[in-house]
Every structure is written in structure tokens, then in C-alpha cells.
Amino acid sequence: MRRGEAGSALLVTVAVSALVSALAGALAATVMIEEAVEAHHRRGVQALYAADGLLASVAADLADASDWRAVLDGPGSPGFRGPVSVTLPDGSVVDAEAETRALPPGRQPSDDTRWRLFAWGWLGDLVGVPDRAPRLYLVAWLRGDPADPGADPPADADGRLVVRAAAFGPFRVMRMVEATLVRHGAAVQVVAWNIVR
């Protein structure tokens, strides 16, 4: 081997080593980003299911209520009330009353379609396993149906209410669902359901 060839082999070896190191670093960064995205997605899915579960719980409470006018004017759910303001595991604070004020008003400017805080608390308290459930804070609101043609929403003559439920988690995870409920005698039917956020 000649003297010039040994130097060029060393340069090629160093260049290949640097290239492999750069690729390994990029791969490690990509894996870390993918894991973070997957964790955020998983928390979002958990929050969506938790919000939908709270909506189902509120629908069950409303099925037991004999007069929805009293529910709209009353203090909220007798069965699911936790602290109004909580600190999530990441240090962020969720205040149910502040979230209520932040909700958009109904289509009518009257007080009749204003959101009313109905149920709030930790997911673990709702499902009965406070130590094992994800740390998600749940809030549900009610209002008369603003799409109700010609009816006075608080009078609730046709037995229609809109329920909105949200789940708040760490790292700004928040999912919200909404349903329009109709009473048929003692039964409650969901006539519209959608993901708000």
C-alpha cells in the first residue's frame, strides 16, 4: 500500500463513521418525536372516551329527572361534583366556572340558551376507581335547545336539551362532545351527537 492510499482510506472511514453517526442521531430524534406524538394521541383518545362517558352519565341522570325545567334552573348533578378548580399533573389549572364563561353563547342572545354547569370532577371519581383512572378532569354543561322552533328553551315544552361534556388532561389535551337529548315519556333519546373539539 502506498503512503497516499493509507491517508485516503482513513478519510473515507472517518466520513462513513460521521455519516452513520448522523443517521443514528436523526433516527433517535425521529423515534423520540414519534413517541411524543403517539403519547399525545393516546391522551386525546382517552379524553374523548372520557368526555363521551360523562355525556352518557349525564343522559342517565336526566332520564331519572322528572322535570328538566328544574334541572336547568337547579344547582347541577347531585351525583357528580368534585372540586370546581383543579391542578392537572403537568401543573396547568382547569377552572370549571371559567370554562363555562368561555363557552360560546347560543344562537339567541337571550339568557335562555346560556350554558349551565351541571357536573364536574375527576374521571376516577366518576368510574369509581380514583387511583387507577387517567388523571382527566371532566365537566358537563346543559342548556335549552336553541334550535327548538318556537319554544321557550327554559320552559322545555318539547323535552329537548343540549348537553356538552369535556375532558381536560395534561399537556393541553382537551376533547369535547355535544349531544341533543329528547325526552319521550321516561326514556331519553340522543337525536344528535358530535365532536366539538
Secondary-structure blueprint:
Layout: H1 3-64, H2 68-73, E1 85-87, E2 93-95, H3 96-102, E3 116-122, H4 123-127, E4 137-144, E5 160-169, E6 173-184, E7 187-195
Concise synopsis of the structure shown:
The protein is of the alpha+beta class.
Describe this structure in words.
- 41% of the residues lie in helices and 26% in strands.
- It contains 4 helices and 7 strands, in the order ααββαβαββββ.
- The chain has helices at 3-64, 68-73, 96-102, 123-127; strands spanning 85-87, 93-95, 116-122, 137-144, 160-169, 173-184, 187-195.
- It is elongated, with a radius of gyration of 26 Å.
- The model has no long low-confidence stretch (mean pLDDT 84).
| Content-based structural category | alpha+beta
DSSP summary: helix tally: 4
Number of domains: 1
Percent of residues in helical segments? 40-55%
Total count of strands: 7
- What is the chain-wise order of helices and strands? HHEEHEHEEEE
End-to-end gap: 69 Å
Shape: elongated
Strand content: 25-35%
Q: How are the strands of the largest sheet arranged?
A: 3-4-5-6-7
As a whole number of angstroms, the C-alpha radius of gyration is 26 Å
Mean pLDDT: 84
Low-confidence stretches are: none
Outline the biggest β-sheet: 5 strands, antiparallel
